[in-house]
Design goal:
The chain has 280 residues and is of the alpha/beta class. The protein contains eight helices and ten strands. A hairpin with a 3-residue loop joins strand 1 and strand 2. The radius of gyration is 18 Å and the shape is globular.
Length: 280
């Protein structure tokens, strides 16, 4: 599949620029909104569309973690995109803005990516009705925020995949550090509570697949459990896998015979949801 490398300007609203990529590297699309294109800085979208697909493919926006302070672009980004490609999904790794940028910068970046992929679905060979979002850790918080704070149907994911996600910034299981990085220290309590995303779940929240471990001392499994329980209460399809072992940040679980099973379980879930056919 050819990637259009033309510069696109949208009347002072957004500037999208496809940047050159070395052989074997994914093309990168700037999502700058200030007219500068900011080619070497976030927000950027790393493109992993399926090459020469016979039909429009499902797609996933991948949000690496990093505590809203940095981004684990390799093992929670590029490696994940390559895995998705192997199973018949196009992938778009989101390099979103982090501290010192505050809310709503990361959410704006993710929603812009969702909207853009649907706008250019034909060009990239993507089925706009099978566009999901996947996030690790703080990227999981961003993915769950996109799934629970949308107002425009074009930014609503069709499914959500959350791997050891932060869901809340409040006790007893929330991650206060992520909240400080996203909202600033001493943020208004009601603002902080509004990003306890399990409290934002409704019957319209997308179905979700979740992974956590009781061995995670950084982001307790209580985050995933609370979101899962909220989905079940709302009647939204959900699947949760909680592993006994596994410290925070294991990515795709390479080298661990237990943790590495989540990827196969996720593929099976996508097949059950009708996102993928059984051949993948």
């Amino acid at each position: 599949m050819e990637i259009n490398t033309a510069i696109l300007t949208m009347a002072g609203v957004c500037v999208f620029v496809v940047l050159g990529a070395a052989a074997g590297e994914a093309p990168v699309l700037s999502l700058a909104t200030d007219g500068s294109a900011a080619p070497d800085k976030a927000p950027r979208l790393h493109l992993f569309p399926l090459p020469e697909a016979d039909a429009p493919s499902p797609a996933v926006v991948v949000c690496p973690g990093g505590g809203y302070a940095g981004l684990a672009m390799d093992y929670e980004g590029v490696e994940v995109a390559q895995w998705l490609n192997r199973h018949g999904l196009s992938a778009f790794v989101l390099e979103y803005r982090v501290a010192p940028h505050r809310h709503p910068a990361p959410l704006d970046d993710a929603q812009r990516a969702m909207r853009l992929i649907r706008e250019r679905a034909v060009e990239w060979g993507v089925d706009p009705a099978r566009l999901g979002i996947l996030g690790f850790s703080a990227g999981g918080h961003l993915a769950s925020t996109v799934s629970t704070h949308y107002h425009d149907p074009e930014t609503r994911p069709d499914f959500t995949i959350l791997i050891y996600p932060v869901i809340s910034f409040l006790p007893p299981f929330g991650h206060a550090g992520c909240g400080d990085n996203l909202l600033g220290k001493n943020a208004d309590t009601e603002l902080v509570r509004s990003f306890s995303n399990h409290e934002r779940v409704t019957t319209d929240t997308p179905p979700a697949f979740l992974v956590a471990s009781t061995g995670d001392t950084v982001v307790p499994a209580g985050n995933s459990i609370a979101y899962y329980q909220a989905l079940v209460k709302a009647g939204v399809p959900a699947e949760l896998h909680v592993y006994e072992q596994g410290e925070h940040g294991y990515g795709m679980g390479k080298g661990d015979p237990a943790l590495s099973t989540w990827t196969d379980l996720c593929v099976k879930w996508l097949q059950k949801r009708g996102v993928l056919n059984s051949q993948h």
